[in-house]
UniProtKB/TrEMBL annotation:
<keyword id="KW-0732">Signal</keyword>
<dbReference type="GO" id="GO:0016787">
    <property type="term" value="F:hydrolase activity"/>
</dbReference>
<keyword id="KW-0378">Hydrolase</keyword>
<feature type="domain" description="AB hydrolase-1">
    <location>
        <begin position="56"/>
        <end position="286"/>
    </location>
</feature>
<feature type="region of interest" description="Disordered">
    <location>
        <begin position="84"/>
        <end position="103"/>
    </location>
</feature>
<feature type="compositionally biased region" description="Basic and acidic residues">
    <location>
        <begin position="93"/>
        <end position="103"/>
    </location>
</feature>
<dbReference type="InterPro" id="IPR029058">
    <property type="entry name" value="AB_hydrolase_fold"/>
</dbReference>
<dbReference type="Pfam" id="PF12697">
    <property type="entry name" value="Abhydrolase_6"/>
</dbReference>
<protein>
    <submittedName>
        <fullName>Alpha/beta hydrolase</fullName>
    </submittedName>
</protein>
<feature type="signal peptide">
    <location>
        <begin position="1"/>
        <end position="25"/>
    </location>
</feature>
<dbReference type="InterPro" id="IPR000073">
    <property type="entry name" value="AB_hydrolase_1"/>
</dbReference>
<dbReference type="InterPro" id="IPR050228">
    <property type="entry name" value="Carboxylesterase_BioH"/>
</dbReference>
């Protein structure tokens, strides 16, 4: 999932209150913050067991938070695990600047410098795929042991208008809905991300976490994620193992297959009976494929 008038004062106050309030951490995980190069505070969860094997860093999609990865992080025994709230999401700083994959690339770099455990495996979902692509374009792969991209093609930027006019039109229509009805849009986005039945309390919790992103910032993020930069050239820079996990129902399935075909040695796994949030709909399949990918990396 991917989203500039000033925030009304009340929203600025609420955003500040959210940042200052105590942050909940699931059992077995520690909350921490790292300062990005512009001073933004990036919230992340840390857990697992420090080891010689590469740590795994999870990056969520548009407006989602680190919490969405908790169950998957718990499956990874014997290695350190991290999950971040991208800027303007969750408990990270809400800022009117750098709400783009290119801006968030510096936040990823700040986190990897803080971790300082050697090359890591970056797992990105949806907007997180755009963020990782922007990171590789700017910083290269020196800090990366492997990449896992979950159910997202790369943005073609302004070329999308000519290449996929119908899809671009649908995106702009959705942006208009977000601007007018942000609460309803967020709820609909969460529902559309899942194919399997969702517990009502779980649904409400995830929606509440997504609504920590102010609507105008979310709207700006959608535009910069999908319509501003052609990120497909970064595929030529990827010299690390890449696993692509795609929903069989994804409208971007062909594009994800093309990504795997363009990166030497990359592998794609198509997950049946799953929506966009395939790691929530089919957690056992996701966990198994991720474990296999990590085992292969360890063997190298």
């Amino acid at each position: 999932m991917r989203s500039t008038a000033r925030l009304p004062c009340i929203l600025l106050l609420l955003a500040a209150a959210c940042t200052a309030a105590p942050v909940f951490a699931a059992e077995g995980f520690r909350n921490a913050f790292v300062a990005s190069d512009d001073g933004a505070r990036i919230h992340y969860l840390e857990g697992g067991t420090p080891a010689r094997r590469p740590a795994v860093v999870f990056i969520p999609g548009w407006t989602w938070t680190a919490d969405v990865w908790i169950d998957q992080m718990r499956q990874l025994d014997g290695r350190a695990v991290f999950a971040m709230d991208p800027r303007s999401q969750g408990d990270s700083s809400k800022t009117h600047e750098r709400n783009s994959p290119e801006g968030r690339a510096a936040d990823i770099e700040a986190l990897l410098r803080r971790i300082d455990r050697g090359p890591v495996v970056l797992v990105g979902w949806s907007q997180g795929v755009q963020d990782i692509a922007a990171y590789v374009a700017r910083y290269g792969t020196a800090r990366i042991a492997g990449l896992v991209w979950v159910d997202s093609a790369l943005s073609a930027g302004p070329k999308s208008i000519a290449q996929d006019p119908a899809g671009t039109a649908r995106l702009l229509e959705r942006i208009a809905i977000l601007a007018e009805y942000p609460r309803e849009y967020i709820g609909g986005m969460h529902d559309a991300s899942r194919m399997q039945a969702v517990d009502g309390a779980e649904r409400s919790r995830y929606i509440a976490l997504s609504r920590k992103t102010p609507a105008d910032l979310g709207l700006a993020m959608l535009v910069t994620d999908l319509l501003t930069v052609d990120r497909t050239p970064v595929l030529a820079k990827i010299d690390r193992p890449l696993l692509v996990l795609a929903s069989a129902a994804s409208p971007e399935l062909d594009a994800q297959r093309a990504i795997a075909a363009r990166v030497p040695g990359a592998r794609i796994v198509v997950v049946e009976n799953a929506g966009h949030a395939l790691f929530l709909d089919q957690p056992a399949v996701f966990s198994s494929e991720l474990a296999k990918f990590l085992s292969d990396l360890d063997a190298r």
